[in-house]
Amino acid sequence: MKKKIFTVMLCLAMVGAMLSGCQKKPESSEGSSSSSDSEPDKKPDTAPEDIKGSMEGVTLKVGTSGLFGPFSYYDADGKTLIGYDMDLLTDLQDILGFDIDGGVQAMDYSALTASLAEGKLDVGAAALCATDERKEVMNFTDIYCDSGQVVMINKEENPGIAEVDDLAEKKVAVEKGTASHIYATKNLEDSDIEVHDTITTAYESLEQGKVDAVIQDGPGAAFYIKTTEGTKLEVTGGEFNQGQAPYAVAVSKDCEYLDQINGALNMLKDDGTLDELYTKWCE
């Protein structure tokens, strides 16, 4: 009899051990877990099938510049935001299913980056360069577009400027907080740098001959010249500072959806959508 009781108790103990081994392991404080041999085909959290619709019911505050064609600018009605980044946001919404609180907010770059750094915005899509300085106060997705800077001059008042090396002791206009502003601050110590809140006023200063040159991202410069009737501006020399203007979607440090947004962005890269957007807006 004692032997039977011992056998039953031993079996119960073995069953209890097996059940406890099947319980879901709690995630570590670092959010990482190792897959077991019994789950060789387990997909990562960012698998495409997990991304689609993963943000339904989520509302984000999203900002852009509205003054940086062809990436974000106003249509002819002066009210509707259009451009590469606006189409990109729509594509991300189609995949993830999130809503935008009150529509995309347009503001100048300095206000946009400050709002992201302070958590007043969740997401920024405005051809934002993923610089080391910005990475300290906000997160970024993978790069979706890259460009270098160019020198723009007034062809009617060209003071002998053929390339960026000719800008010494010249008055150069840049937009505040951009890659061009950072480049000029670090590399044009002998130039008179005029910082503008928007690229629009920088262009106006050059059109009016108030400055000698403007430094701008290549796609933005080409777009302005192509779409501005009667402009006196032209690009001189080739692109420089290449690889230092990588455009990425900015996500505030407080926003928990970086992985989903980045996963959806890479889906758009893999299926050719990003190439289509560049052809549509930048060529």
From TrEMBL:
Q: What molecular function does GO assign, one term?
A: ligand-gated monoatomic ion channel activity
User: What SUPFAM superfamilies does the record point to?
Assistant: Periplasmic binding protein-like II
- GO annotation, cellular component aspect: membrane
Q: Where is the composition biased (Basic and acidic residues)?
A: 39-53
Q: Which domain of life is it from?
A: Bacteria
Q: Which InterPro entries match?
A: Iontro_rcpt_C, Solute-binding_3/MltF_N
Keyword Iron-sulfur listed? The answer is no
Q: Please state the span of the N-terminal signal peptide per the UniProt entry.
A: 1-19
Enumerate the UniProt keywords alphabetically.
Signal
Record Pfam families: SBP_bac_3
- Every Ionotropic glutamate receptor C-terminal domain range: 59-283
PANTHER family per record: GLUTAMINE-BINDING PERIPLASMIC PROTEIN (PTHR35936:SF38), MEMBRANE-BOUND LYTIC MUREIN TRANSGLYCOSYLASE F (PTHR35936)
The protein here is known as Amino acid ABC transporter substrate-binding protein (PAAT family)
Species assigned in the record: Muricomes intestini
